[in-house]
Each structure stands twice: as structure tokens, then as C-alpha cells.
Amino acid sequence: AQQIGQLADMDQAPRTVTFKSPMSGNVTIKNVVEGASVKAGDQVLRIVDHGTLWLDARVYEQDMPFVRVGQNVTATIAARAGGSIDGKIIFVAPQIDPATRTATVRIEIANSELKLRPGMYANAEIVSELSRDAVLVPREAVIDTGTRTVAFVATGNGRFEPRALRIGASGAGGVVEVLGGLAAGETVVTSGQFLLDAESRMKEAIQRHLDKQLLAPAEGGPTIAAAMPVAPAMPAAASTTRAALGQTSPEADAVYGAYLAVAQNFAAAEPTSAASAVAEPLTAAARRLAESDAGKAQSLSSRLLDATARLQASKPETQAKVFKDVSDAVLAMVDVLPPSDALGGQLFVAHCPMAFDTGADWLQAKEAIANPYMADMRACGEIKRTLRIASSKARP
Length: 396
Description:
Number of strands: 16
Helix content: 25-40%
Radius of gyration: 31 Å
Strand order of the largest sheet: 3-6-5-4-7
Largest sheet: 5 strands, antiparallel
Strand content: 15-25%
Structural class: alpha+beta
Order of helices and strands: HEEEEEEEEEEEEEHHHHHHHEEE
């Protein structure tokens, strides 16, 4: 209004007129050149104030019930090492992207120093209380067989009891919510539980065999109508079993090394080799393991050999699904035949909740996620646990 008043008081129109922007910022669009004419409604310039930016985060659909407008968010920017930025959720998209099974959550972030630039990537951490009262156990205590979820509870005097669990959400610090099967205060096994599970299955199989023999009619004699009861708990001999089975072996290390090569090939942007070729060393390593002294894990080796054979014979469109079976077979070995330091560094068990709708795990040598299942989302997933690497010097 002040400029218009000044122009009205002039005797003749000035040769140039200065238009002042109502805001400060950066020019992102310039649609005019010197000497051009404009009319009312034309877009001449676009000026953007970068003092406040939006961070559009992708949130998995299963996590959406715990996200709401107004929540505080901590973001780490890939281009700014060592530092976090606080923001607040201002919008939650009402729809799910059918391709990625995620929803967009918009976060407002202050950028008064203009150190952030549009187009940068960031990781957003949204902290939400899932439940005020929950039973939590370490993730390592839970055995997921695919058909059941089990934990072993210490009952005292060196005895353990398997419990079927109903599992809820995962929490920070590597804990899992238990909806049923455990009570607060009970002690669960977090190391060697796979050996206890294997022992319990063996006892169950032996007992079934004995029951069939005792209940079968003897030739020329009466039917025995009694059966031996199955012991409800297992003795502490599981610890000696772990000492016998938990040794490292070069054959097992060869399996893990060959598997990591297959996983790396699948996680590459463009796989360098066909699955039939890259799986051959893994098949050979699994065969040597089955034939070695470490064949204490014969059933595990057989399961792995079956999975690798199917992987070599599978079509490209089904290879990722079959590789999940290979990964499950390898992960079933890690507590029975732990990897040794001969592989170098640490090994990580990673999990992708979006793979095959039900989620999938795999083993990798680096902490940065390299998803072998989803070609369009190689960074999708999280580290579930870090494997304990045994010393190769401890081999018998």
C-alpha cells in the first residue's frame, strides 16, 4: 500500500518499479526475462522459505496404530553425521501405498540455520508407548518354528519347561511383548534354548515309539494297556548337550561363508550370478558338513541340502521365496554349530517384516541392511540380534 501511494503521487510513471517480496527465501522458479510483459494472475517467480521443512517418512502398516498427529520425532540426517533434529508429526496419510505397504507421515522440522536441504534422506524415530502394562522377554528367548512360538522356563533344580507363547509387538532394546504363555517374574532361557528344543523333540519322538511298542499286542499274548508317561520337564543335562554340540567346526564355517555369498548375490542391485550357480558352493559345503564329525546336526544338514537343491532348481520369480527356506535352515544351525572367528568380524540376524506378508529373516556380515528378498527395497529391515562368534582355537 505504501508503494502504491508513492506511485500515485508521482507526476509521471517511473521507468522501473521495485516489487518487494512478502517473504525471504530462495528463488526456485523464474518465469520472466527482462523486457517481458506480465498480466494479473501470471506466476512470475516462486520464492520458498526453507526455514521450516517437511520430512515425509514411510511407516509400515502394522505400526500405523501407534502413530498420531502431534507426536514428537527424532530424525537423523544421512548428510549430517553425529547429530539429530527434533520435529513433530503434522499429518498422517489416510491411505497405504500398495507397492511398499507403508503410509506417509509428514513431520515438520525447523531449519533456521538453513543447513538442511530439500531432497536429503533421513531416518525418523517415532517413540510410542504400545502398552502401559506388558510382559516382556528378550527376543533371544523366543523360538519361532514357523508353526509355533516357544520359550523355555526355568522351573528350579536345573529343570526347564517349554511354553507355547502368543507374541505381540517388538519393543526397543531387543524385547518382545508376550500376550500369553508367561507370567511376570518367571525366568526364561536366553542361550542354548535351541538345544533344549531339540532335546524335547527327541524325547517326544522316543516316547511315541515306546508307546506304540507298549500298546501293540504281543504275538500270542494279551494287550498291554499301559504307557510310560512323558516327563513334563527336562533335566539340566541340556547344558552338557550344549557343550557337546556347541563346538565350532570348519565345515560349519564353510556353510556360513557360502551362504553369505548367496545372500550378498541376492541383495545386490543386479545379481552377478544365477541362483543355480551361486548355490553350488553352499550345497557342497552342506554335504561336507553332513559327512563330517560335526554331523551331530544331521537333521539340520539334511534340511539345508533340501533347501539348496530346491533353490538351484527354482525359477527366477520364485528364488527369493525358496531362499527364505535356505536362510531358515542356516539360522537353525547357528546355536547348535556357532560360527567362529575364522569368518572374521561379527554376524547379524536381520528381519524384514514386509517380506512375503509374514516377514522373513536372514544372516548377513554387515550391520547395514542388505535385504535379499525385496528387489525394490534393499534397505528394508532391521537387525534382530548379533551372533556370538566362538573362538576357532576352541575346536576339539
